[in-house]
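Render this sequence as a predicted structure.
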Amino acid sequence: MVNNFCKMKKIFFSITIIIFASNVFAQCTTAAAEATQLTWVQSNAYKYIGANGKESKANTEAMCKKMAQIFELFANAFKNNKGLTGRWKAQVDDKNGDGLVKGLMDISMNKIICKDNGELNKSNMNPGFSFTVYVNGFVPQLVRDKKKQPNFILDKDKVDSLNGQTVYYIDKAQEEESLLGFPLHFYNWNNYKSTSIIISKPNIPLFKPISIGEFMGLFKKWTTAYNVVWKGNPRYIVTPAEIDKFIGNCTKEFLVKPIIYVWDGSEQVVYLRKSSYASRVTEGKQWVTLNPDYLSKNVSETSVQFISFEFDATGADEISAEILADFKTNFDFKKLQTMLGK
């Protein structure tokens, strides 16, 4: 196992981490806790996770520096908050299907409370609010490159490709809503309405839609292996000949449309019904690749090409509502966007 951690303290010189000695808070009171300035502690709980346990230390260091810069934007957005304690941790991950090194950060803030003995409780276990940041990656519950549909894609660890690019499946419909110009995606997870924001370069689409005709080519490849699993269950079987027949009954105009579908995807036969497809991404789910024209050429594999992050969108409690309001008001989205392609 690789035992190298993102040693942020060696490179993160723009923010001083203040750790208070417990005796300073020996007489902690609720009023004192609520008046305490938010400070941050970095956790080294995460490490590098690479292909077959092999690490490129240069990649790890380069990506750690960039994640530290992203964290600084979060720290600046909440620099005036009080009564909270903050913790963050970072991980450099393996490359995505398009050859870019991925980064992952967890950033959380929790209410400061007093222990029974009168000391400050700096534990991160209190109810609070958290962000998860994905560099060169997507929120798994929203955009998937593996196990794209239940009972359909056979190998959950397999990354499928089209013309050499990873095929992604947008699992949840995009809402017609934005935050400061950035599209919002919503999904419900354990009765919490979570939000994903994807930060991408302006004026150029991040995704390239896969057409219905292109998808049918993928479908023929997938169904051959799928049918081996479901042999003896005709209900689930679709043959390549049936796919060819469906294609032959479709117009050219229909086959070049982006594939956006409106069913649960658990059976193959629904792919062969024209009524299963929609015209707008807000009406269904979509198959895409990253737009080749979007990706910067001749840059390092640690360049930041896109960023996504998620958080609880409800603001259901007082702490969450305050943090969410400050985030929407103070977070420097535009500065984050200027990091892209570097």
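Summary. The mean pLDDT is 81. DSSP finds eight helices and 17 strands in the chain.
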